[in-house]
């Protein structure tokens, strides 16, 4: 009979402890709304690299920092408003309950933190971004605010006429791509369009998957028709988009276009699509809360690519 202190149980206990620590870290990363900013910063850096912009430049640092802070502010505001406006506890997810409790018990600290974020974001926008990028982000911010007010306007049937998941995907993707487009040459900017379109599809499928998984396979009756269709064909869409990303990589190499577009963006996109498809395949064995966190982890493929490249070289 094995004892608690036997050599075989110690490694197992250590692995379990590490897994539990990693799980807690990812849960905190999600609850604090750091998941979306991390994804945004990662893909913004990937598109900047593909556009030939050095990630060590001050312009790249300012753009990535601005996008990260702006994304965090959007998600904190959205989740806090959802928590305050929810009509029934069943509509609340852990992230909503977290901000709802924070709002009720420590409202001043949340307001102070958001205010500091607004000041930092404004300073970066005014003094860190180029004029062209500043104008682009002003337009995107206005579109984001319109989306925010529409979603939280209290209109019961809003979801049926307004594809929320598609709107989030387009706004998020544009936010990540704009710094690269504003600095790239016309030729490079044109070559980024196919990868940008695939990235927008990736963001959309990520939103659709989250809706599907959090509803345990059943979407809300008010969900848009496109969301229902995407959820019904989630695996096929993910694998089809992954194949399109592979085809893009092959095409870029064949046409001798900038190698970084083929060697970074396309493989990362393909891996992210396959990761979402794998989560959909194994969703019955994973808790809903874990699926929600892993849905964003699946989008961090450029980080894995950069780490692998560093070890190889």
Provide structural commentary.
This protein has 313 residues and is an all-alpha fold. It has one domain (34-312). 79% of the residues lie in helices and 0% in strands. It has 14 helices and no strands. It has helices at residues 9-31, 35-50, 58-85, 94-105, 107-127, 131-151, 158-161, 164-183, 186-214, 225-232, 234-254, 259-281, 288-297, 301-312. The radius of gyration is 21 Å and the shape is globular. The model is unreliable at 1-6 (pLDDT under 50).
User: What is the share of helical residues?
Assistant: over 70%
**Which residue ranges are poorly predicted, with pLDDT under 50 across at least 5 consecutive positions?**
1-6
The major pleated sheet works out as: none
Structural class: mainly alpha
Calculate Rg over CA atoms. 21 Å
Strand residue content: under 5%
Order of helices and strands: HHHHHHHHHHHHHH
Shape: globular
User: How many domain modules?
Assistant: 1
Brief sketch in words of this structure:
The chain is 79% helix and 0% strand. By secondary structure, the protein is an all-alpha fold. It has one domain (34-312).
Write the SSE topology:
Elements: H1 9-31, H2 35-50, H3 58-85, H4 94-105, H5 107-127, H6 131-151, H7 158-161, H8 164-183, H9 186-214, H10 225-232, H11 234-254, H12 259-281, H13 288-297, H14 301-312
């Amino acid at each position: 009979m094995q004892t608690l202190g036997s050599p075989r149980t110690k490694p197992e206990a250590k692995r379990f402890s590490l897994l539990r620590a990693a799980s807690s870290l990812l849960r905190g990363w999600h609850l604090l709304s750091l998941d979306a900013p991390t994804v945004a910063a990662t893909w913004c850096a990937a598109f900047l690299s593909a556009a030939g912009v050095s990630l060590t430049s001050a312009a790249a640092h300012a753009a990535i920092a601005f996008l990260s802070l702006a994304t965090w502010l959007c998600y904190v505001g959205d989740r806090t408003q959802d928590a305050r406006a929810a009509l029934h506890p069943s509509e609340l997810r852990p992230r909503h309950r977290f901000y709802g409790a924070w709002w009720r018990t420590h409202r001043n600290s949340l307001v102070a933190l958001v205010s500091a974020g607004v000041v930092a974001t404004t300073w970066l926008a005014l003094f860190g971004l180029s004029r062209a990028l500043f104008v682009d982000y002003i337009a995107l911010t206005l579109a984001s605010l319109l989306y925010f007010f529409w979603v939280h306007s209290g209109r019961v049937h809003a979801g049926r006429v307004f594809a929320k998941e598609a709107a989030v995907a387009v706004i998020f993707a544009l936010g990540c791509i704009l710094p690269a487009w504003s600095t790239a040459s016309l030729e490079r900017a044109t070559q980024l369009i196919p990868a940008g379109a695939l990235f927008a599809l990736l963001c959309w499928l990520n939103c659709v998957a989250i809706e599907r998984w959090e509803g345990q396979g059943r979407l809300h009756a008010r969900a848009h028709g496109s969301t229902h269709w995407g959820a019904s064909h989630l695996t096929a869409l993910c694998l089809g988009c992954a194949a399109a990303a592979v085809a893009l990589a092959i095409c870029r190499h064949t046409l001798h276009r900038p190698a970084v577009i083929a060697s970074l963006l396309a493989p990362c996109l393909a891996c992210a699509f396959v990761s979402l498809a794998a989560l959909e395949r194994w969703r019955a064995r994973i808790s809903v809360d874990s699926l929600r966190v892993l849905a964003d982890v699946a989008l961090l493929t450029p980080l894995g690519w950069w780490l692998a490249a560093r070890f190889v070289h």
